[in-house]
Specification:
Among the domains are: 119 residues, Methane Monooxygenase Hydroxylase, Chain G, domain 1, CATH 1.20.58.530; 89 residues, Alpha-Beta Plaits, CATH 3.30.70.1590; 40 residues; 159 residues, PH-domain like. 47% of the residues lie in helices and 17% in strands. It has 32 helices and 31 strands. Bound molecules: adenosine-5'-diphosphate (ADP) and magnesium ion (MG).
Length: 1081
């Protein structure tokens, strides 16, 4: 696949100066201008980004742009600061290399903006999340705070950084920010008390006065009017495009986000106000009688207000402004201050107050943004230091000297790494190389920082020297020592060449910096280097009842009096720059070289001479030349092979030989043209980025394939392990199931076997038992037979010794004797002859049972016969009748037992004798067998009517009891049956033959006290009469009676005795006549 390089597509000029053809300074500038005119402010020299300040906002920093540059190859898209930021960030994240972003350029060239762009880009692309976002926000918001206190409007830049700032952003292994550390370098504190024409004091003063609420100002005892304050320059108090009031709110907000407490913010503002107040303290001379000049504070109001703000006792401060105490060994000497000294003391205090406040702010911010974890982290350092500065009118002072020294050092690093280091590397690696000349500014650095005769060293020496020390003595010293240095120029130096140089005033020296000549006025060098604050002042400050102030002036603590001089400003700065350089050198550098297109801070203006100058001193041409002659990319063989080994079958996955040979095989296999790369001793050098892109692109594809492969294998593995797991589980399940099934089957078989076994055993046992039984029987039989046989044998043998049949005889005799005794006893105990005597002797022997019973029976029968033989004929007849009654009724009718003892009288009425029945007797022809009074039951209502009942041999007659008149006469043959109940009543129904003459009126229902006798007699009549069938006697509790036409059921019930013990009879309905018989009747 063709590598996409929009760096080359639609390019305005060339995006990378390396591609510039022909290469000359003019074409270089022309290319920059062309691109600048088309709003292309970024141009590459290899991996270095040149940035030209557009002085207007361009639409190239949108979130879309961030996305566009995110994770893209450096040369893939058109040049942009984001490409560099992305490259640095990815290198940090993916290759674990600490990075530093070096931003250099003159003041106003856009360094600070560039650093902010880099930070915001990194913030946008790195990880997200609540915690991470908070860290990011704090890191970003530290900028406005530091800018308010450390930036000021200068003639070159409306927002010029007046301090050096180096910020380490710390990331974890994922590339998420953890925190940061800010280092600040030498704030230009002289600005607090005096600003060059056309410049302002630090922003914060103006922001506070314009932005703070009336209330706040009142609390701080401030007035909104700038003109009231000596320290604020008035000619440029208002800056176009700067809204101080709005910025004040931004700063307050930023402080809050960074984590400042409200009381901390208040303290900070109080200090700022105090500085302003301090500026307003003025002194007037006062001559003392001893001739010395003293100073007096003109108007104490400001002093008072300031003291109130800081909680300082006014008198203490007042004294500190009037006297200076010098401590030497054990002595303390106080001298009065004259007006100039008093002003000096005041300004020194103001500068110290402000610069210490600034350092405190940095420390405080660091406290907030420092990484919370101790885990190993990677670092990206962003260096935004004040740019090279030249005041054209020669008004350059100690500050500029320091600033420019710092820039020299940075240039040095750039030269070291991009020009010298690179060229030296080619030589070292044995690559064919023609040396390219460039200006090495090491000599200038040496002039300034050399420990023996460097300018800074001499300044220190001068400051520490006893005796009178002035700026002039310092210059004299320079003039002697540095006279021969080719970059040092001074009118009075031993080098006579400058004696007539009128552009060089007497109180100045000039240094040919890498970026041009700078004329420094020595005035103030010694003081500024000394950075002296009278001890009386620091002690006064320490006494303040204000926690922050106390912290800022620790040396004022009388308990810790330190007689040693504090290190000079120059010394401190040199040390910190040294540390910074070491720090930078340990990191992978990324350069942004900022160029200022014009001096007017105007957009669209490209001042060629100005740019040419910068291009020259920045060594950009040399940079391009080295780049062009050299190689875009180099890498040691091992990491190179490691990175690209997947592109060739021979090197993938492992190369056994030397790394270099591996890389050679790789390059041959990939058919990279030989002129595109060179083999160094330990590194491969790739000439063209395009080749690198080609490799990278191939690698990316290959990685994708590998990822797919890994994915494939992983998925396969995952599926297989899942399958194996399933299989294993299935085997376990199957095993368990089989075991269970087999157990069950086994159990069934076992049970079956047991049954079969038990049957078999049973069968066998039975067989055996049979066998044994049979044997036993045989044995028994044999024994029996043997016994009998022996018995027979023995008896046969012994028969001759006994009398034959003696046994039987004895037996018979014994029986006879027993019988005899039995019979005799029976005779003796014979019962009486009464048939009802139940006595009978008991039998003596059981075997006599039958005979004994039989004898009893026979005796009873005999006794009865004897008894009967005594009967007369009449008595016999009576007994016959009684017997018959017994046969009919015994156990059938409950009335019967009571009749047994009653003799059957027959004629109860004595009908033949009683004259009353004469007539009736005469009507009845035959002999009356029975005469009695009966109750005839009325068929309709069951009421009884007394009737005379007569029974003759032929008829049954019913007659009126009173009159004796015959009411009915029924011939016996017309009677078919008699019905009686089973109970104790005397009711009986005479049933008549159907169709007979007597049956017209229906059957008779009668009741008699002599029922048994009547029925017996009636029955006998039938028995004795041969031509008649015997009368049926029907005994039951329910029978039908024919009353005229209807059949009525007569039902006997057992009822409770009501009207005495009499039987009651009731007609219940047509078909039922109920007779209630008392139970106890
Ligand atoms: N990339 C940019 N886009 C728009 N304006 C810029 C850009 N870089 C710088 N500027 C303008 O130039 C001014 C000076 O830039 P600054 O970064 O403060 O300079 P330096 O820090 O180098 O002194 C900024 O205030 C801003 O107005
Ligand atoms: Mg700046």
């Amino acid at each position: 696949m063709e590598v996409k390089t929009s760096l080359l597509d639609n390019m305005i000029g060339v995006g990378d100066m390396v591609l510039l053809e022909p290469l000359s300074e003019d074409s270089f500038l022309e290319n920059l201008r062309k691109r600048f005119d088309h709003n292309e402010i970024y141009t590459y020299i290899g991996s270095v980004v040149i940035s030209i300040n557009p002085y207007r906002s361009l639409p190239i920093y949108t979130p879309d742009k961030v996305e566009e540059y995110r994770n893209r190859n450096f040369y893939e898209l058109s040049p942009h600061i984001y490409a560099l930021a992305d490259e640095a960030y990815r290198s940090l994240r993916d290759q674990d290399k600490d990075q530093c972003i070096l931003i250099t350029g003159e003041s106003g060239a856009g360094k600070t903006e560039a650093s902010k762009l880099v930070m915001s880009y990194v913030a946008a692309v790195c990880g997200k999340g609540q915690e991470v976002n908070k860290v990011k926000e704090q890191l970003l918001q530290s900028n406005p705070v530091l800018e308010a206190f450390g930036n000021a409007k200068t003639v070159r830049n409306d927002n010029s950084s007046r301090f050096g700032k180096y910020m380490d952003i710390e990331f974890d292994f994922k590339g998420d920010p953890l925190g940061g550390v800010i280092s600040n370098y030498l704030l230009e504190k002289s600005r607090v008390v005096k600003q060059p024409r056309g410049e302002r004091n630090f922003h914060v003063f103006y922001q506070l006065l314009s932005g703070a609420s009336d209330d706040t100002l009142k609390k701080l005892k401030l007035d909104r009017d700038f003109s009231k304050y000596n320290y604020l320059s008035l000619d440029s108090a208002m800056v176009n495009g700067l809204d101080d009031a709005a910025n004040f709110r931004t700063v307050r907000n930023a402080m809050q986000i960074v984590g400042f407490m409200e009381d901390e913010v208040q303290s900070v503002l109080q200090l700022v106000a105090a500085v302003l107040k301090l500026g307003n303290i003025e002194f007037k001379p006062e001559s003392r009688c001893n001739g010395t000049d003293e100073s007096r504070i003109k108007d104490k109001n400001d002093l008072k207000e300031m003291c109130e703000l800081l909680g300082i006792e006014q008198s203490v401060l007042e004294r500190a402004f009037s006297y200076r105490t010098v401590e030497a060994k054990m002595e303390k000497v106080s001298t009065t201050l004259n007006v100039a000294q008093a002003y000096y003391a005041r300004d020194a205090l103001a500068k110290n107050l402000y610069s210490r406040l600034f350092s405190w702010l940095v420390t405080r911010i660091n406290e907030s943004i420092k990484a919370q974890t101790k885990a190993r982290h990677k670092v990206m350092g962003v260096l935004d230091i004040y740019g090279f500065e030249i005041f054209e009118d020669g008004d350059n002072s100690f500050e500029q000297f320091i600033i420019n020294y710092c820039n020299e050092k940075l240039q040095q690093i750039f030269i070291e790494l991009t020009l010298r280091e690179e060229q030296e590397e080619y030589v070292r690696e044995g690559i064919e190389w023609t040396n390219i000349e460039y200006f090495n500014n090491a000599i200038i650095c040496d002039l300034i920082e050399n420990n023996q005769n460097g300018i800074l060293a001499m300044l220190d020496e001068e400051c520490l020297r006893p005796g009178t020390v002035t700026d002039e003595t310092f210059l004299d010293k320079l003039n002697t020592i540095c006279a021969e240095h080719q970059h040092f120029e001074s009118r009075l130096s031993k080098n006579s060449k400058f004696l007539t140089d009128h552009s060089l005033p007497h109180n100045c020296f000039r240094i040919q910096h890498y970026a041009g000549k700078v004329l420094y006025r020595v005035e103030g060098f010694v003081d500024k280097n000394n950075d002296l604050l009278y001890r009386d002042l620091s002690q006064a400050m320490y006494k303040a009842n204000h926690s922050l102030i106390k912290q800022l002036f620790p040396e004022g603590n009388p308990a810790k009096v330190n007689l040693k001089r504090p290190p000079t400003a120059g010394f401190q700065f040199r040390a910190s720059v040294g540390t910074l350089m070491k720090n930078l050198q340990s990191k992978n550098p990324n350069y942004i070289r900022c160029i200022k297109p014009n001096d007017k801070k105007a957009s669209h203006i490209f001042t060629e001479s100005l740019v040419r100058h910068q291009v020259r001193y920045l060594g950009l041409m040399e940079n391009v030349r080295v780049r062009r002659a050299g190689y875009a990319f180099r890498q040691a063989y091992e990491p190179c092979l490691e990175r690209y080994k997947m592109l060739c079958k021979n090197t993938w996955p492992h190369w056994r030989g030397l790394a270099r040979e591996g890389v050679e095989v790789l390059m041959t296999d990939l058919q990279v043209p030989a002129e595109e790369f060179s083999y160094g001793r330990s590194k491969i050098f790739i000439r063209n980025p395009r080749t690198l892109f080609f490799l990278e692109e191939r690698r990316r594809q290959c990685l994708q394939d590998l990822a797919t492969l890994i994915q494939k294998i992983y998925r396969g593995w995952k599926c297989r392990s899942h399958f194996l797991l399933l299989k294993q589980s299935q085997i376990v399940v199957a095993a368990w199931y089989r075991r269970y099934a087999q157990q069950k089957k086994y159990q069934t078989i076992k049970n079956a076997t047991t049954v079969v076994q038990s049957y078999t055993r049973g069968w066998q046992a039975r067989k055996l038992l049979r066998e044994l039984k049979y044997q036993k029987r045989c044995k028994e039989a044999v024994t029996t037979i043997a016994a009998y046989w022996h018995g027979t044998q023995v008896r046969r043998e012994y028969r001759k010794f006994f009398r034959a049949n003696a046994g039987k005889k004895i037996y018979d005799f014994t029986i006879q004797r027993i019988m005899q005794k039995y019979f005799l006893g029976l005779k003796r105990d014979m019962p009486s002859m009464s048939p009802i005597d139940k006595n009978w002797s008991t039998r003596p022997y059981r075997f006599l049972d039958g005979a004994h019973t039989e004898l009893r029976r026979i005796f009873h029968l005999w006794r009865c016969k004897k008894y009967r033989d005594q009967f007369t004929e009449e008595k016999k007849a009576v007994y016959e009748e009684k017997l018959e009654a017994s046969e009919i009724f015994k156990d059938k009718k409950a009335l019967y037992p009571s009749s047994v003892s009653q003799p059957f009288k027959g004629d109860y009425l004595e009908i033949s004798k009683n004259p009353k029945y004469q007539k009736l007797n005469s009507t009845v022809e035959e002999k009356v067998l029975l005469a009695d009074v009966v109750n005839k039951i009325n068929r309709a209502n069951g009421k009884g009517t007394a009737r005379i009942f007569l029974l003759t041999k032929k008829n049954v007659v019913l007659a009126d009891q009173k009159t004796g008149q015959v009411k009915a006469s029924v011939p016996l043959p017309d009677l078919t049956s008699v019905s009686v109940s089973t109970q104790t009543d005397g009711f009986f129904a005479l049933k008549l033959k159907e169709g007979s003459a007597s049956a017209v009126k229906g059957d008779f229902l009668l009741s008699s006290e002599h029922l048994i006798e009547i029925i017996t007699k009636l029955h006998r009549m039938g028995a004795t009469t041969a031509d008649r069938t015997q009368l049926d006697v029907d005994i039951s509790d329910e029978f039908l009676v024919q009353f005229k036409q209807e059949k009525v059921c007569v039902k006997f019930i057992q009822g409770a005795p009501k009207n005495g013990n009499s039987v009651s009879c009731k007609r219940k309905n047509n078909r039922l006549l109920e007779v209630s018989v008392p139970t106890t009747a």
